[in-house]
């Protein structure tokens, strides 16, 4: 089995340590509410305004409401899809729009930000159905698969990987590339770091993870591949970048899925960021390391998307 390529993620500097400590103090000032619906408003408070130079519009894509975030000088021939995190319960344009906008900027194209259905109102597999519907709608509009890249964070990262399983199983062509940040790939919570890193993960706890998993699954076995892509067959995936923080409970979810992709012969690049926490990218306005990670994520998607587009054009010319 070939091992996933592991580029060196930038080390923490004293300035990075200071920024992270200040952020964690800020986030720790308020206690997470027990009620899931109150938790949505609390989670949205983490969001920051979308940069003024990024145009935000709304549209319906495949029956799913979505925001379109278009940075300056966006390449109209390419597009991205970002699936937000939040345990399938939390997360929205308010919490994630600013981060998605910066991912669009670094990738050099507009990103769709679908507002997929969330639990507990909408159980599994509603988010998977919505994610696939958005991608299929872009194909139906005439978008070439090699012009589309996908990304997601936390539960949205797991949702992206589950959607790719479903896209492949439906016989649809894969997008050019995918990137996932701190993906939640195993809702059964069997990864080693669910236990070994719970005490050093300042943002996640086992109780919160278990609560949102129960709300989403509602009796579905957590080992179901479209719910937990860790249990799926990872062959035939496009190039995938996985970024994860060293201090995360979900660290092993990333490590194990990277190994799964490599074993299946699917191209994968794994970055473990020293000292970083769950989806640190959300805090790009406060953390230099978040801005660095978004820049690397965008460069990966841009590079592989451009390569796929060239190959697609070459194949079309030879047909």
From TrEMBL:
Domain Alpha/beta hydrolase fold-3: 81-281
Lineage: superkingdom: Bacteria
Keywords, in A-Z order: Hydrolase
Gene3D superfamilies linked to this entry: alpha/beta hydrolase
GO molecular function, one term: hydrolase activity
InterPro entries found in the cross-reference section: AB_hydrolase_3 (IPR013094), AB_hydrolase_fold (IPR029058), GDXG_lipolytic_enzyme (IPR050300)
Similarity comment: Belongs to the 'GDXG' lipolytic enzyme family.
Protein name as it appears in the record: Alpha/beta hydrolase
Organism, as annotated: Streptomyces roseoverticillatus
């Amino acid at each position: 089995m070939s091992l996933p390529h592991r580029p060196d993620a930038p080390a923490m500097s004293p300035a990075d340590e200071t920024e992270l400590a200040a952020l964690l103090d800020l986030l720790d000032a308020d206690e997470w509410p027990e009620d899931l619906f109150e938790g949505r408003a609390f989670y949205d408070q983490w969001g920051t305004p979308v940069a003024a130079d990024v145009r935000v519009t709304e549209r319906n894509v495949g029956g799913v409401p979505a925001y379109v975030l278009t940075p300056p000088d966006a390449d109209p021939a390419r597009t991205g899809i970002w699936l937000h995190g939040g345990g399938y319960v939390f997360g929205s344009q308010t919490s994630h729009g600013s981060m998605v906008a910066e991912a669009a900027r670094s990738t050099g194209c507009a990103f769709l930000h679908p507002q997929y259905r969330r639990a507990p109102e909408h159980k599994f597999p509603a988010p998977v159905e919505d994610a696939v519907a958005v991608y299929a709608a872009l194909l139906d509009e005439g978008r070439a698969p090699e012009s589309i890249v996908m990304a997601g964070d936390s539960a949205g990262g797991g949702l992206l990987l589950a959607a790719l399983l479903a896209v492949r199983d439906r016989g649809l062509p894969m997008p050019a590339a995918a990137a996932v940040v701190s993906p939640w790939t195993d809702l059964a919570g069997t990864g080693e770091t669910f236990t070994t890193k719970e005490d050093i993960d300042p943002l996640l706890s086992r109780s919160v993870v278990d609560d949102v998993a129960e709300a989403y699954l509602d009796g579905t076995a957590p080992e179901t591949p479209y719910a937990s892509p860790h249990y799926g067959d990872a062959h035939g995936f496009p190039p995938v970048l996985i970024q994860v923080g060293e201090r995360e409970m979900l660290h092993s979810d990333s490590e194990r899925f990277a190994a799964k992709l490599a074993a299946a012969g699917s191209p994968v690049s794994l970055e473990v960021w020293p000292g970083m926490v769950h989806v640190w990218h959300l805090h790009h306005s406060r953390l230099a390391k978040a801005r660095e990670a978004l820049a690397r994520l965008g460069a990966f998607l841009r590079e592989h998307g451009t390569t796929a587009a060239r190959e697609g054009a070459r194949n079309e010319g030879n047909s």
